[in-house]
# Entry
Amino acid sequence: MTKDTIPQDFSLGLALFDALPVILFGMGTWLLWKMTGSVIVLAGAVICFLSGMLKVLWKIIVVIRRKNVWPLFIQMRIGMPAGFVLLILGMILSFAAGKLSSFLSGLLRPMPLLFIVISVFGMMGMILCSSKLDSSDVRANWIEQGCNTVAQGAFFMSILLAYLH
# Structure
């Protein structure tokens, strides 16, 4: 994908489906923030969520206006890593402060662990897709977003089950 590429055959359905994993991830990280109370976790979650939604906006613009707004596409290469660094840092600091003991005991039960494994496999699928498939291809996008939805849905379920523990 380059700034001059305008993906063909993208649909509004694909663009809206792209929002589903972003929303699932946002709900999971919101629960993480509720459990930690960490402003760093919240900042990382918000950055990742906004970055994901900007990518959704990019797809919507591609579909409706047939235009590639390159900054909306490329921003994920900065926003996602920055958000994840903050999320991980916030979780480490929360763990060091002893704020995650009930969360960890909830997370280490069979069902949350199963969902973590599913999430990891979904993320591995995403990595494989991004390295092997053409991001401007509509079929590749559906496959990638399917993997992402499974990964983020499983992530949300694991966090939800730990939160409810």
About this structure: Residues 12-164 form one domain. The chain has one domain: 12-164. The mean pLDDT is 93.
